[in-house]
Write a structure and sequence with these properties.
single chain; mainly beta; Jelly Rolls; six-stranded antiparallel sheet; 24 strands
């Protein structure tokens, strides 16, 4: 059986900061409360998503990679990653702020946790009035000054706060301290890693455990980039029916794609799988006389063996994140 476009059954994650927008805005189907993350495509150990459509329904990413190798991942991707899928794709709803945190590099994560590092990006899908993202520092700090700020609970005073609206995009490389503020719904693209060092958590008690969450400052301090940046937000074009460069990093490529009417995509010269995250509107994807609907808050993966697809927006334009290696 030949590979076809694949949808996966999301995994819904309780978070003490989670709200209801994954259900009310993105139409996710769950009954629990405080769901903060929808893991759309995951190969994280013990958190593997399974295919939800077609001949391969019930298969994991590992099953498909083992069977199809380069036809699934792309030959260059398979040579680099073998049987491991390199990306974790999520939607995140922050009703209250996330902890201040940082992620280790590939080298440190491998040494300490036998894991990939966690370079990631955010695309804001919806934001309440005055909602913000917290990214990096506004001034250079010494390790000593930083440690004093964390100890005294004043670290937020030196961090860069930026009010956000739909479409705002940020790249979060390893070492950059960051947090998602209250009232933000976003799409996240990251390396396959669940390694996070929590620095500050507002002294919150988790209602499920009745305890403060663990902090990891002993691990975090030596991975932090203390250099401030002139601009943390990604600037990009929004031209219709072309792939607008969004975040191009060594770990993933992401483009912003506005589909208005019919658009044919040709990936013949791309040696990689492709993921579409629908961040607004809805469309239909056509492949081999089959139709695959894709609505806001849904994700679909095109195996590397798929060279050409047609996209057709419905009612109005649709906005996608186009992701590959």
């Amino acid at each position: 059986m030949k590979l076809h476009p694949l949808k996966f059954t999301p995994l819904y994650k309780y978070r003490l900061w989670g709200g209801e927008k994954l259900k009310t805005v993105l139409n996710k189907n769950y009954s629990e409360t405080n769901i903060g993350e929808s893991w759309e495509i995951s190969d994280v150990k013990n958190d593997e998503t399974v295919v939800d459509n077609g001949f391969f329904k019930g298969k994991t990413l590992a099953n498909l990679i083992k069977q199809f190798k380069g036809d699934f991942l792309g030959n260059k991707v398979y040579e680099q990653f073998g049987n491991e899928f390199p990306l974790l794709i999520k939607f995140i709803d922050a009703k209250t702020p996330l902890s201040i945190q940082v992620h280790p590099s590939n080298e440190i994560a491998k040494e300490r946790h036998n894991s990939f590092g966690k370079n990631e990006m955010w695309y804001v899908m919806e934001a309440d009035e005055n909602a913000e993202l917290i990214v990096g520092f506004d001034e250079k700090l010494s390790k000593e000054a930083y440690t004093n700020l964390v100890t005294n609970g004043d670290i937020l005073e030196k961090m860069h706060h930026e009010n956000v609206t739909e479409g705002d995009t940020f790249y979060i490389p390893t070492g950059r301290v960051h947090a998602i503020g209250a009232g933000v719904l976003l799409a996240e693209i990251q390396q396959t890693s669940d390694i996070t060092y929590r620095i500050y958590d507002y002294n919150r008690v988790d209602a499920k455990t009745g305890k403060l969450r663990d902090l990891h400052n002993d691990l975090a301090t030596d991975v932090i980039d203390f250099e401030p940046k002139e601009n943390y937000k990604t600037i990009y074009k929004k031209d219709k029916n072309v792939s607008n460069e969004l975040v191009h990093s060594p770990y993933f490529i992401s483009n912003f794609l506005v589909v208005d009417g019919t658009l044919e995509k040709d990936y013949t010269n791309l040696d990689s799988f492709v993921i579409y995250m629908c961040v607004n509107g809805n469309l239909e994807l056509y492949f081999n006389d089959e139709v695959y609907p894709l609505k806001k808050g849904e994700t679909i993966l095109l195996p590397a063996s798929i060279d050409k697809v047609k996209l057709q927006s419905q009612a109005k334009e649709a906005k996608l994140l186009e992701v590959y290696l």
